[in-house]
């Protein structure tokens, strides 16, 4: 590694550590927490801290929610299949923050599966009050499994982000989505833990409204189309560190590489 690259890496790590020193977790949950092992994951369940209960947003026929096999070396993860969408309201809406979680998009999916940021918890669908979504969507022209698709206009248009994977379908992926609704921007880190490949991105976002709810959805025709997800962590980013959110988003990649 060149000296200049070493200096840049050292600066990056110092800024990263400074960011974490000034941040606190405001919401956290895991599928191994109570009440999920008892209920099997049902609407109204509320484990962890800093979240409101899981809320059904869309339910198809078929469509269900359940505890899935592990995607994070733990005993269980959440899962939904068919056509199903859930919302998780934050107890404290955030204008600047980041959301870290694990996911696995089933290789059998024929339609969109993924996640979104919502400015209200009063919506009646996955799309309502959405300002950002990310996922995989085989319906896209020239669909590419080497990365993810994002939309900032409720799915009307998608931008493909090449993450450099061989094929992300069925892989365990760690996402970290950062948002700054003051600046009108998002930052994103995507780490494919199965292939040990990570990538980071940034872009423009609607400004002026805090994020109130996190959504997850799969739009499939049968129970063989699904998405598994786990380990939700939401961290607020102080305004002075807004420009450093992009660095914080590599949390999962660094944790994997350096055992943070």
Concise summary:
By secondary structure, the protein is mainly beta.
**Individual helix count:** 4
The radius of gyration computed from the alpha-carbon positions, rounded to a whole number of angstroms, is: 17 Å
The SSE string, one letter per element, is: HEHEEEEEEEEEEEEHH
Q: Structural class of the helix and strand makeup?
A: mainly beta
User: Mean pLDDT, as a whole number?
Assistant: 86
The biggest beta sheet is recorded as: 13 strands, antiparallel
In what range is the share of β-strand residues?
35-45%
Distance between the termini: 22 Å
The coarse silhouette is: globular
Tell me how many strands there are: 13
Task: Break the fold down into its secondary structure elements and pairings.
Layout: H1 3-21, E1 27-29, H2 36-39, E2 51-68, E3 77-94, E4 96-105, E5 113-118, E6 130-136, E7 147-151, E8 159-162, E9 173-180, E10 185-192, E11 197-204, E12 211-219, E13 226-236, H3 245-248, H4 251-258
Antiparallel strand pairs: 1-13, 2-3, 3-12, 3-13, 4-9, 4-13, 5-6, 5-12, 6-7, 7-8, 9-10, 10-11
């Amino acid at each position: 590694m060149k000296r200049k690259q070493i200096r840049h890496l050292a600066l990056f790590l110092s800024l990263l550590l400074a960011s974490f020193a000034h941040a606190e977790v405001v919401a956290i949950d895991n599928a191994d927490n109570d009440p999920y092992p008892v209920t099997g994951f049902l609407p109204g369940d509320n484990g962890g801290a800093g979240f409101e209960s899981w809320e059904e947003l869309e339910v198809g026929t078929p469509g269900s929610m359940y505890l899935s096999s592990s995607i994070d070396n733990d005993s269980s993860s959440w899962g939904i299949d068919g056509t199903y969408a859930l919302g998780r309201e934050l107890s404290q809406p955030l204008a600047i923050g980041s959301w870290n979680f694990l996911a696995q998009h089933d290789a059998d999916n024929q339609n969109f599966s993924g996640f979104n940021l919502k400015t209200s918890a009063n919506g009646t669908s996955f799309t309502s009050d959405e300002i950002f979504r990310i996922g995989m969507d085989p319906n896209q022209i020239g669909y590419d499994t080497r990365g993810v698709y994002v939309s900032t206009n409720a799915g009307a248009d998608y931008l493909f982000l090449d993450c450099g994977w061989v094929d992300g379908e069925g892989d365990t992926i760690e996402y970290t989505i950062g948002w700054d609704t003051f600046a009108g921007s998002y930052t994103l880190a995507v780490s494919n833990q199965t292939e040990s490949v990570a990538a980071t991105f940034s872009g423009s976002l609607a400004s002026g409204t805090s994020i109130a709810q996190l959504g997850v959805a799969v739009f499939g025709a049968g129970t063989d189309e699904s998405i598994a997800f786990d380990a939700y962590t939401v961290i607020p980013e102080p305004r002075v560190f807004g420009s450093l959110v992009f660095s914080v988003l590599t949390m999962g990649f660094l944790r994997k590489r350096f055992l943070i």
